[in-house]
Amino acid sequence: MPQTTIFDELESQVRSYCRNWPVVLATAAGSVVTDENGTEYLDFFAGAGVMNYGHNHPDLTEPLIDYLRSGAIVHSLDMHTAAKREFLESFREYVLTPRDLDYRVMFPGPTGTNSVESALKLARKVTGRQHILSFTNAFHGMTLGSLSVTGNAMKRQGAGVPLTNTSTMPYDQYLSGVADDFQWLERVLADSGSGVDLPAAIIVETVQGEGGLNAARPEWLRALQDLCRRYDILLIVDDVQAGVGRTGTYFSFEESGIVPDIVCLSKALSGYGLPMALTLIRPDLDQWEPGEHNGTFRGHNPAFVTGAAALKRFWADDTFQNEVQARAAELREGLEKIASGYPDAVVKGRGLLAGIEFPDKAAATRIAAESFRRGLLVETSGPDSEVLKAMPPLTITSQELQRGLGIIADAAAEVLG
Ligand code: PMP
């Protein structure tokens, strides 16, 4: 007789699901997730960067319940609603205006890849060019357009056929580390006899969240922007994972001072795990006619409600940002301490999107599994899952952070001896 497992019906899911923590999750609060047996796990995963404000934050739960109880509209395609207006007002007041940014806002669909698709399509439409450049180890999503700019052989093979109209360039630190990284590209672009088509856009993550926590240097990002401006190439920053405070500022590119032409956001936008994506567009690029790009789930009002509440609660002044930066410094210090115990282990990433690359490529996966046994949800990053990736809620307390670091240290000692 086949043995029944705790999963039962859950085992009918497709093979492509890759998260295999052997528990059934039931409840969550802040930085702690609890399974159906009542076992608690500290969360260094944050729903892949969705739960930036922690799970079920009461300041977001209350307005959501009030909204639903009031009988207000839930689904509204791209129609006007009071909840959408309030979100847009809050986004302008707490995000765009204080940073002196001028963008038109588009809700491109429910999730990150919808934002990337809209950015790629719009760049092609307004420039009249086809080609998009991206970077090795980039991750931009799983639909055909976003996958075509994702620099990961295994994931690209999921399409079954070659993906066209894109090229991949080396990302910052794989090169010399000097500021002239783009000279070779410039030589190609400037050579009118080369016959190489000018790209419509370059898409970049400031920190490669899935691709190994490679963090671009600010001067490299500025050189990239400079190149784009000189050749009239649109610069798209994919802030789906690194945005919404993850690196210590609302946008991950603030530190570098660049101003992208298009910005992709999703994951933590609603602050509550409700699906939401947003594409910020330089006003003069707002060139789609009504209906040229649309979709059914472009206005999820419960997400607008929690999203607006999160903006008011966390971004009205610098208090939260300062706290995140303090936690990020603690995380970095803790990771450095652990890494120092293992020859050639390197700390990577930025803000609360940081981790350790171990020279033994299999180590991170084993440490993550051992951490789970010790009560910590933590994942890996990189083409060979070679980086242990710490991505806790931004609201994590100092105490919880230290507890998680302690678990990683013990798990690493267990695995690596
Ligand atoms: N861009 C980046 C940088 C991401 O990290 C992700 C998701 N991990 C995506 C795009 C795609 O988002 P989604 O999975 O919501 O489609």
TrEMBL record:
Matches recorded under InterPro entries: Aminotrans_3, Aminotrans_3_PPA_site, Dat, Ectoine_EctB, PyrdxlP-dep_Trfase, PyrdxlP-dep_Trfase_major, PyrdxlP-dep_Trfase_small
EC number(s) reported in the record: 2.6.1.76
Pathway listed: Amine and polyamine biosynthesis; ectoine biosynthesis; L-ectoine from L-aspartate 4-semialdehyde: step 1/3
Keyword hit for Signal: no
Enzymatic class: transferase
Keywords in alphabetical order: Aminotransferase, Pyridoxal phosphate, Transferase
Cofactor(s) this protein cannot do without: pyridoxal 5'-phosphate
Superkingdom of origin organism: Bacteria
Keyword Transferase: yes
PANTHER family per UniProt: DIAMINOBUTYRATE--2-OXOGLUTARATE AMINOTRANSFERASE, DIAMINOBUTYRATE--2-OXOGLUTARATE TRANSAMINASE
Family statement: Belongs to the class-III pyridoxal-phosphate-dependent aminotransferase family.
Protein name stated in the entry: Diaminobutyrate--2-oxoglutarate transaminase
Organism in which the protein naturally occurs: Myceligenerans crystallogenes
Organismal lineage: Bacteria, Bacillati, Actinomycetota, Actinomycetes, Micrococcales
